[in-house]
Amino acid sequence: xxxxxxxxxxxxxxxxxxxxxxxxxxxxxxxxxxxxxxxxxxxxxxxxxxxxxxxxxxxxxxxxxxxxxxxxxxxxxxxxxxxxxxxxxxxxxxxxxxxxxxxxxxxxxxxxxxxxxxxxxxxxxxxxxxxxxxxxxxxxxxxxxxxxxxxxxxxxxxxxxxxxxxxxxxxxxxxxxxxxxxxxxxxxxxxxxxxxxxxxxxxxxxxxxxxxxxxxxxxxxxxxxxxxxxxxxxxxxxxxxxxxxxxxxxxxxxxxxxxxxxxxxxxxxxxxxxxxxxxxxxxxxxxxxxxxxxxxxxxxxxxxxxxxxxxxxxxxxxxxxxxxxxxxxxxxxxxxxxxxxxxxxxxxxxxxxxxxxxxxxxx
Length: 363
Hints:
The protein is α/β, with parallel strands linked by helices and about 375 residues long.
């Protein structure tokens, strides 16, 4: 089984101000056990900024991006050195992989990143993935390692994503404030509104929090990956989860593992705009058909040919995502028109399909 595990800040620090070597050694010992059982494991690790603070003797800096980028630049080598330190006695080889959202938006770079990660996994090497904070700007940041871990799970077609945190999972309310709060053992199908509200109110050390974990779970399950949010301090938590123990909160996948191109569409960060369609077009797409111009009722945003766009139903709810075969300007002229009119209207023709079914994923 191919597994992606996300170590949160609270997991690698044990709740302290710096990386805990003993905690890291325990976590990587569990990873070694998973490899020994025949699994392939990739890690998405927080902790670079915490490591940078430790190297610089915990300076007091304002919380803005340039200082965080500086701390990450200082801390990333320290973090990887700690991984190598604890992995050497275990006979584990690690590899540093730094990504930004733009690496996943571009099809060629997406495939290069996928090939590298899959190659490492197949050689029994443990990729340690982090966001490339040193060069990432607001426009190309994933923003948190929860969603990055879901994107990595999509990238390598993982079957299981484990999000380790300092809580036992998702609760119906904040357990520190509400004595009636109960652990949610499993979520399947559409994520209910109360789940998002419960996650938004949960406290957790780190920049992500529970809300981004639910976001990550939604993304990963839509690509065919099971997800669990569990407490990283539980003994042998990873091995037990891999064996099927229902620790934490489990999220069942919406679909079977998607083909690579459709996974790319789902993982693509830049969504250039949206098109609304009528009920007939929605029905045809849900049955496996392509989107034609006659079914389009509205075009939103500014996007180019080849960009990923949202497809909205008559209630303005997103039900699909795909790669546009025409620009937003072109589609503004083609709304409701028949396919055999395209060339006469535009003066050129890229095909009858506005979004081909091979470039379309239903949500």
